[in-house]
Amino acid sequence: MRKSINDANDAIEIDLQKLLMRWLANWWLIMFCGIFFACASLVYTKQCITPLYKANITAYVNNIRAGNQIESISSSSLSTSKQLVQTYIKIISSDTVLNKVAEAAEVDYDANQIRGMLSAAQIDETELFKVYVSHPDPEMTARIANAIAEVIPTEIANIVEGSSTKIIDYATVPKMRYTPSYTRNTVLGGIVGGVVAVAWITILFLMDVRIKEAEDLVSQYDYPILGQIPNFDQISTRRSHKSGYGYGYDTAKISEKKEGEKNV
């Protein structure tokens, strides 16, 4: 084989160009799959996914028990409060606290069920943290979140000695769903459909090993092409358009012309 590296690179570029042309030639299939998958994703999201609403409360962590007389808040106490946030979040997720939350909210959920609705996060590495509650019923979401706000200050003060928690913001009834997003799921469905169509076209392109052009032979064998068999259909068509005679000319018209010459 004498094929050089440049020749190999040229062959790869030609294959990529052919693949791109195949994609462009089947643009209608890619668009159809994208629209179909987008519509299917939208229908599935509306019919099969339960919408969830989210409410939250905001709490402040203080490492000094409420009621103690202090003159100022030192940097060390603030640093300690930041470290206590993660401890408080773990305490809120405990069975003891969540069972009391269920009693305060007057719901029939157990600690595991409420824990599945619950999430918490520290706010920008400060002494503040938020507790989130997700539920299909927006009113129930705010109800459970406010029950947490009612229970945790007393429970945390009893568990962690010398500290306290203050509620800054209470939960309100959410007016809009938190999840799912119809727009996002529809767009993702369209993208998936387009990718599936492109992948299918690519697979068919790679599986097509038929030799169609002279370049296909050159890319597979290191031999020169001595000649090509012409396409007689194209040749006869061109001759017919130019002179009116040839392989593609109507034989009936030729016979009529000869009869006219004899009569003359």
Structure description:
- The chain is of the alpha+beta class and 264 residues long.
- It has three domains: 5-48 and 181-220; 53-169, EIF_2_alpha (Alpha-Beta Plaits); 232-263, no CATH class.
- Helix content is 60%, strand content 11%.
- It has ten helices and four strands; from the N terminus they run ααβαααββαβαααα.
- A four-stranded antiparallel beta sheet has the order 2-3-1-4.
- β2 (118-122) and β3 form a beta hairpin.
- The longest helix is centred in the last third of the chain and has 26 residues, at 182-207.
- It starts with a helix and ends with a helix.
Detail the topology: elements first, then pairings.
Elements lengths: L4 H21 L1 H22 L4 E10 L12 H18 L2 H11 L5 H7 E5 L5 E8 L2 H22 L4 E6 L12 H26 L6 H7 L11 H12 L7 H13 L1
Antiparallel strand pairs: 1-3, 1-4, 2-3
Helix pairs in contact: 2-7, 4-5, 4-6
Describe this structure in a few short sentences.
The protein has 264 residues and is an alpha+beta fold. Helices cover 60% and strands 11% of the residues. Helix 2 (27-48) runs antiparallel to helix 7 (182-207) and helix 4 (95-105) packs across helix 5 (111-117).
Name its key features.
264 residues; alpha+beta; Alpha-Beta Plaits; 3 domains; 10 helices; 4 strands
| Global shape | elongated
- Given helix and strand content, the structural type is alpha+beta
Main-sheet strand order equals 2-3-1-4
Helical residues, percent: 55-70%
* Biggest sheet statistics: 4 strands, antiparallel
What would CATH call the homologous superfamily of the largest domain? EIF_2_alpha
